Automatic annotation (TrEMBL):
One of its GO terms (molecular function) is porin activity. It comes from Phaeovibrio sulfidiphilus. Keywords: Signal, Transport. Belongs to the outer membrane porin (Opr) (TC 1.B.25) family. This is Outer membrane porin, OprD family.
């Protein structure tokens, strides 16, 4: 049985009422895609004199997530149910202390189960009916409840060096990112990093990945789904300028490759300062993608080098926060490689070293929570967001926001029609600072998305879907920590 918006509002009010008198400032991003797991912090009472045991931290999280999304049918003009579910998630984390001040272990597990689902089971908050990205079961009507390990790695910290060996999330400067639902995805392999003053170095290698909607690890394959990719790797470096004319500037460069398949690279720059006492961030980023196949076959994804440019400005005028961002994308295709009205070349910029959805993720920053990825060939997109804390109005800790995005100029070799799209989103959220629900949060997010092309889902634009209404509601309760 689904819940009405009125019931959701009452539920949120009850959660806030159980907390102590005030709530803390809500975070900028209210969608689960940017949720960050609470760091373990509850130490055991038994002391052994051995740091490996005495410094153990244990914590967990409980989540309730509900989503209702309708999508337009271009043939009838009507909106049909696309997603309609409520999902419960729970996670537990255990981190040990260090043996000899050098070696420790981190472990994390989570479980997911739909409380109800009246539409597609492929909604990313529970486990997909299929176990890998290459063999979907489109006849399935229910997701799979279950439990999955999302991290389990040996951690080494000798001096300025760091390393993870096992199942991990990438945190060093490189091109490997993390897919998020309510929990992060997982790489299998090793990662190393080192910090020398203002310079940070990173390297990672992996042979498998698990998106958070799969319970088990998946090996890598090329886009054809049959040619194995034995490994991928990436290296990068970051530097922070602490004085001189570039004071407050951070620069990161990284490069990665998957075996005989794809390459990616990025440049990230950001300046942070307080002109006139007002916090301001300015940034520019460049993302590159390329492939090693020029045959026109299923592994030939780009005609030349694909690239995306991203620029942003963020201003904190308390109680207001303002963001203005923009992207420009090139993901070239060749008309000479169109066969029988179709092409294997993507026509959009997917920043990852294994192309199949859910099989890897790149360390790409722009994400606007306005449904589209705004990343088709020749597409220009702009995004603006205004948010406000409501403490001065007697609503301590609440924050509301409105954002909008507009994309135009996208093109495909399969049509002469240009891509156009826009979206408007509304957010409301709060975080609880103390009391029995300390660290908990309640978040609402609504998006109205319009596809202006009138063309079908996924073709001729490979990453474009029809117009939608999308409502998301999230309750998060930390346990321990």
């Amino acid at each position: 049985m689904s819940l009405s918006p009125r019931v959701l509002l009452v539920s949120a009010s009850l959660v806030l009422a159980l907390a102590s008198p005030g709530v803390a400032r809500a975070s900028d991003e209210l969608a689960p895609g940017t949720a960050v797991p609470v760091e373990p912090g509850e130490k055991t009472g038994l002391r052994t004199g051995i740091p490996f045991f005495d410094d153990i931290t244990v914590a967990g999280n409980l989540y309730y997530f509900q989503r209702k999304r309708t999508r337009k049918d271009p043939q009838t003009g009507r909106y049909a149910r696309n997603l309609d579910h409520a999902t419960a998630n729970a996670s537990a984390d255990l981190d040990t202390g260090l043996i000899g001040g050098v070696a420790g272990f981190n472990f994390g597990v989570f479980g997911a189960r739909d409380l109800y689902s009246n539409a597609s089971p492929y909604h990313e908050m529970a486990f997909f009916p299929s176990g890998d990205p290459f063999h979907p079961n489109w006849d399935a009507t229910r997701s799979r409840p279950g439990v999955s390990v999302y991290k389990g790695y040996l951690r080494l910290e000798p001096g300025p060096f760091r390393a993870k060996i096992g199942y991990f999330q990438s945190t060093e400067p490189n091109t490997l990112g993390n897919i998020w639902s309510l929990m992060p995805g997982t790489w299998r392999g090793a990662e190393a990093g080192a910090t020398f003053g203002a310079l940070t170095l990173g390297f990672a290698v992996a042979d498998a990945y698990k998106a958070p909607w799969f319970r088990t690890m998946n090996r890598f394959y090329r886009a054809d789904g049959t040619t194995p990719v034995s490994y991928l790797w990436s290296a990068g470096a970051g530097y922070v300028f602490s004085d001189g004319p570039l004071e407050g500037t951070r620069v990161e460069v990284a490069y990665g490759r998957s075996q005989d398949f794809l390459m990616n690279a990025h440049l990230k720059t950001e300046w942070n300062g307080t002109p006139g006492g007002t916090p301001l961030s300015l940034g520019y980023q460049l993302y590159l993608m390329g492939d090693s196949d020029d045959s026109g076959g299923p592994n030939d994804l780009f005609e030349g080098l694909a690239h995306q440019h991203y620029a942003y400005a963020r201003l904190d005028l308390a109680p207001w926060r303002l963001s203005l961002e923009s992207t420009y994308t090139r993901a070239p295709q060749s008309r000479g490689k169109v066969v029988d009205g179709s092409t294997h070349q993507l026509g959009y910029h997917a920043y990852r070293l294994v192309s199949r959805y859910g099989l890897s993720k790149g360390a790409i920053d722009p994400w606007w929570d306005c449904r589209s990825d705004w990343n088709h060939d020749a597409e220009v997109a702009v995004f603006a967001r205004v948010s406000r804390t409501l403490d001065d109005l007697g609503l301590e800790g609440l924050e509301a926001g409105i954002s909008g995005a507009r994309g135009w100029g996208g093109r495909s070799v399969l049509t002469d029609r240009k891509l156009g799209e826009w979206a408007v989103s509304l957010d409301l959220g709060a975080v609880i600072p103390r009391g029995p629900l300390e660290g908990g949060s309640v978040r609402f997010h609504f998006t109205r998305y319009r596809n202006l092309t009138g063309l079908p889902d996924w073709a001729p634009f490979g990453n474009l879907f029809q117009s939608e209404y999308d409502f998301k509601f999230l309750i998060h309760i930390p346990v321990g920590g």
